[in-house]
Design brief:
Layout: E1 2-3, E2 6-7, H1 8-12, H2 20-23, H3 36-46, H4 57-64, H5 69-81, E3 87-89, E4 98-101, H6 107-120, E5 123-127, H7 133-145, E6 150-152, E7 156-159, E8 169-171
Parallel strand pairs: 3-4, 4-5, 6-8
Antiparallel strand pairs: 1-2, 5-7, 6-7
Length: about 170
């Protein structure tokens, strides 16, 4: 069947170029998440648009560094939901519960920090995991090698190091 010189197959071709956020709409509100831990994470941390704590220390640090407020709120809610007590940005100098790694760190240093964080049972949040081909490949390799649960939130990649969590990867 031809319509104006274009067949139906060519008209439907545009549907394959749907952006990732529209293609992921079926996972909205936790549908398709079969882990109680990740489901609670989605419901209590990522779906809340406002801060869920009275002490937004991580939020303030992220906003001062120029992060988008929406991402800062989500990370602060994650910090509160998981009862983390300390965090670090771009380093593991002191023992901490959450380590945020930005693009300012090189590839080799990122790999070393992720390995050290796994030994210390520290959760790692890799910021901007899809910003460039090299960064995307690095995050894919880290996810494949990570022994525990990982959550891909598009704006950041979480690598949990809790020994109770199975090796699973969630794309939200």
């Amino acid at each position: 069947m031809k319509l104006n010189g274009r067949n139906l197959k060519r008209r439907l071709y545009g549907l394959t170029t749907i952006p990732q956020r529209v293609a992921r709409v079926r996972y909205f509100r936790g549908h398709g998440v079969h882990s109680p831990f990740v489901y609670q994470l989605v419901r209590q941390a990522f779906m809340k648009g406002k801060l869920q704590t009275s002490e937004p220390v991580l939020y303030e640090a992220l906003v001062q560094r120029g992060f988008v407020k929406k991402r800062a709120v989500q990370l602060q809610n994650l910090y509160s939901h998981c009862d983390y007590r300390s965090f670090s940005i771009d380093s593991l100098a002191n023992p901490c519960d959450l380590c945020l790694l930005t693009e300012a760190i090189g590839e080799q240093e990122t790999i070393e920090l992720v390995e050290r964080a796994a030994m210390r049972h520290t959760t790692v949040a890799l910021m901007s995991p899809y910003n460039g081909r090299e960064r995307t490949d690095l995050c894919r390799r880290l996810t494949e090698a990570h022994p525990c649960t990982s959550v891909d939130k598009r704006a950041f990649l979480l690598l949990f190091s809790d020994s109770k969590l199975p090796k699973q990867h969630y794309r939200i």
